[in-house]
What does this fold into?
Amino acid sequence: MGYEKLEADHLDALKELGNIGAGNAVTALSSFLNTEINMEVVEAKLATFNEAANIFGSPEKEVAAVYLSISGNLKGHVLYLWPVQSAKAIAGMLMGMNPDELEFDEMTMSAISEIGNIMSGSYITALSSFTGMTFDISPPAVAVDMNGALLDGIISLTAVGDRVLIIQTSMVAYGVRIAGVLAVLFEPDSLLKLLESIGMGV
Amino acid sequence: MAEYFCGMGEWAVGQAGDILCARGLGSCLGLVLIDNKKRMAAMAHVMLPSSNGKVDMPAKYADTAVVYLLEQLKKNGSSMNISCKMAGGSKMFNVSESSLLDIGRRNAEALENSLKENGIQLLNKDIGGSFARTVIFDVMKRKFLVRTIGRGEVEI
It folds into this structure.
């Protein structure tokens, strides 16, 4: 499949899927942390590699990420990224600790991983019930390192030509100034199946 | 005198005074072909092991990047007495059941095979692990730096 066949309608449909997933994820996190999380922007876009790898500016920018792989009917990748200060803030909230005193030790990483797991899990569950497709999700894996490096393997595996299709949600918890981006990328054949499942075959 | 940033799947040729770099490498590889006689080098930011016959972005694939960079060096008047260095190919996430699992390792193997096929000496490499790298090559000094977060900067 070539992405040149994707039209605005397809992108709108994927954006709507993103809305459904992200809505569910935000609700799950809000109730888990007992705070108000706002969903900012959901986008479904055909991005160049470098647009996709530079979500937070430079590919060298240090970010925290939780990764889950989707297998089963569909193959895809869910990555939840936070700038390090936001990651510490959200982990601090869960651990009841001052974020400025947190290091990325085992406990902090485990808190970040749990939050990523809850959000990504509820996102994918919503997609699954909407599309009627089965998504098997892996356990979460967590890492703190350069933005570009955390994304490059996923971009490589989902690229068609020099583009990737990325369904991206920015989330902000205003009171505590936490900003994060949830990125979902499907492998090309799976994207086609996903569109078919909602009556939008290419 | 210029600094060239090779994004994913991109490449560049540099002369004396130029800096070539590829930033934020995870499973990707930064490959530099070095002219042993002239102050000239070419870099590619390689993403995948095999092109499967695709010709759209030769620097993107391990099996086409080497030949393509050699062609570019030749066009720029290289002595064609070439050696090389490379870094990257890590596994950023500790996963057991994803297609991400061994992409970095496969990239590095494919690139080493391609270098061997083309008779190019691999002077040094810094591959694998589970951390990000940025590679910077100073063409004048023939200096290849690998920069990381938390592990400092090393010359290989």
